[in-house]
## 1
Amino acid sequence: MNYLGKLRLGVNIDHVATVRNARGSAWPDPLRAALLAEAAGADGITAHLREDRRHIRDSDIVALKAGLGIPLNFECAATEEMQAIVLNARPHAVCLVPEKRAERTTEGGLDVAGDENRLAHFVAPLRDAGARVSMFIGHDPRQIEASARIGAAVVELHTGHYSDLHAEGLAEEAEAELHALQKGAALAHSLGLEVHAGHGLTYDNVAPIAAIPEVMELNIGHFLIGEAIFLGLEEAIVEMRHRMDLARGLI
Ligand code: PXP
């Protein structure tokens, strides 16, 4: 049952900055990519300012906030440095993620249950500043319940494990992981949390995630930026949107 209607698509433009930084030059420009994504129908732009600044830089956040007509979802670790940047930049949304310097990408979900008190205090000023705060977590009910208790408005369910199992052709395991994500989405929704999902989503694996009725937003980056090499960013996004709408039963 699609009681929550059309899914929003957040386009993560981190890897435009990865390509830029590979040469230490000014291009490709992440803001230009974000504006193209906006024109192609993206509902929001996600950018992750990592502590090591390996892709997005502080100046990108300023440029995105000033230049975008659609909401900016600012992803960061729950550190004092990032809290100060958020309070200054005032993005529409903040997604808190775990961060390890040695990882290639955000490998797991945030341990909200294990750091509940600190995170509750971390989230409060962000909320007071008007940001929709989201916790990037796995489907473990303990993490979902803790996210509700600390006052987050949103949980973003980590689809990385599902995506990996799908890519490895482990159909049964991918199905079990999908089922756990479905249960997690239902629990989060029942606790009053808005549900998002993302990580590792592609044309081939997006449909079952897009069809989870409680999910309201998908955040997709690496695959779209890669596909843009072949199709162009606009076409890559339009195709993803089409697959999401099909899965949702809207077309
Ligand atoms: N959502 C969150 C919280 C993420 O950290 C990432 C990766 O930066 C994504 C979504 C997008 O993942 P991908 O780049 O694999 O599509």
## 2
Amino acid sequence: MKDIEKVTVIGSGTMGRQIGIVAALAGFTTSIVDISEDALSAAKDELHRRMDRDVEKGRRTREDVDAAFARLSLTTNQAEAVADTDIVIEAAVEDIDIKRKVFAQLDEQSPKHAILATNSSNIVSSRLADATSRPEKVCNMHFFNPVLVMKACEVVGSDQTSQETLEAVENLAVAMGKDVIRVRKEIPGFVANRLLAAIRTEALKLYQDGYASFEDIDTAARSALRHPMGPFELMDLVGIDVAYLIRKAEYDQTGEEDSLPSPVLEKMYNSGNYGKKTGQGWYVYDEQGNKVRPSDV
Ligand code: 3HC
């Protein structure tokens, strides 16, 4: 297998944009692709802001950051971006039909040797592999939010993924500064999100059944368990839409009632308040993304 030199990320949202800059910082020629120019421009602005702050705080040098941006391109032209890519990391919306369409396109547009990975944690790659002609090169490569900070990366193959593919993806994750968690067989949510889901489900239940306010449940997680954030704060960071769609995707795969999103999560999702990215979720945020107060839910 050819060494990975060029990385393409599909989707410039919260995850995609940071996966892209982390790859560029690690020395890979990187493209971030999105269907929306506005989304790409928002991604570029945020990445510049974050990198400027890192330089200001002495966490990175200006040379390293400039070199990373010189290796990074943001584009709406997917066919051109993937034409010479060695791996694609798809981080588009958590919707199986959209992902299958994207994988079929990527299969046509990218070189035969290219690996096609998805950042999804709930849509396992075997559900995408048959949309391509290269199931042995399809797998999950799952990063955590915020990708610039969180060290973990779960790598998961289906029955059809080759050992060679898994090793190449693990090596890439290590080169990107990540700790690899190899998940030995497919299960929706993999390891970390299943642990997280157990806490989140219990937190939503405690709140919904009136045992405590969501602010106090967050305080308990932070002050009693030393979690860096409470489960409601974390939903706002990850996105209420993502938290909701993850549950829906799990239900579609398991058919178990327990997998369904809880009614309070569904209500929040339907309100269109998706957390930090829309300025309101469980909490209200100012323009800089600082938490201002609990929202009136
Ligand atoms: N992007 C990049 N860097 C960020 C960031 C972001 N969104 N938020 C914070 N940081 C970095 C910055 O360097 C910041 O320093 P700075 O303010 O001087 O620039 C530094 O982290 C510390 O940030 P804060 O002082 O604002 O706050 P914290 O010390 O609480 O750290 C946190 C923020 C790293 C997000 C921390 O609260 C944390 O680890 N929270 C838990 C995150 C978590 O559990 N993630 C996993 C979610 S599950 C998932 O992603 C799976 C997916 O499938 C949904």
